Amino acid sequence: ISDFRWDACGMADVHWKGRINAILYGLIFTRELDDAAVRWTADAVLNGRTMPLGVAAYYGAIEPALRSGEPLNDMIQAPHSEEAVRDFLTRLAAELDARRPWPPAA
Predict the structure, then answer these.
(1) For 51, left (φ over 0), alpha (ψ -120 to 50), or beta?
(2) 41-50 pLDDT tens trace
(3) Are 69 and 31 contacting, i.e. CB atoms less than 8 angstroms apart?
(4) Among residues 2, 51, 83, 106, which one has the fewest Cβ atoms lying within 10 Å of its Cβ?
(5) 3-state secondary structure of 13
(6) Which of 39, 18, 37 has the alpha carbon at shortest distance from 28?
């Protein structure tokens, strides 16, 4: 892969899509991507309820996903616009940053 890179968490940038899909899957029945949805998703990431790879894996996927310019909501098709999804992910990253230090991955 010609644009293969390692991200800040030591993971290949090419893995962001599946991790973003895991985040978005939790939003398919969420009507509004408000602050409550951000907090709920951050809780899910932090406690590994539905996202068992550890916080760094999902957090580390957000920046390359936003930078990619690729559609982010094309596979899961949560009922939200691409702009709303990108805004949500930006706010989720900020929420996860605010909750440092993170628990260790299981």
Answers:
(1) beta
(2) 999 999 987 8
(3) no
(4) 2
(5) helix
(6) 37
- For the chain, residues with pLDDT lower than 50 are 1-7, 10-12
Cα Rg, the chain, nearest whole Å:
13
What pTM does this model have?
0.86
Contacts of 52 (CB under 8 A, 6+ apart): 106
Contact 64/16 with Cβ under 8 angstroms?
yes
Whether the CB-CB separation of 53 and 105 falls below 8 Å is answered with yes
Give bridge partners of residue 6 from the DSSP assignment: 12
In three-state form (DSSP H/G/I as H, E/B as E, the rest C), the secondary structure along 36-105 is HHHHHHHHHHHHCCCCCCCHHHHHHHHHHHHHHCCCCCCCCCCCCCHHHHHHHHHHHHHHHHHCCCCCCC
Q: How many alpha carbons fall within 13 Å on the CB side of residue 18? A: 9
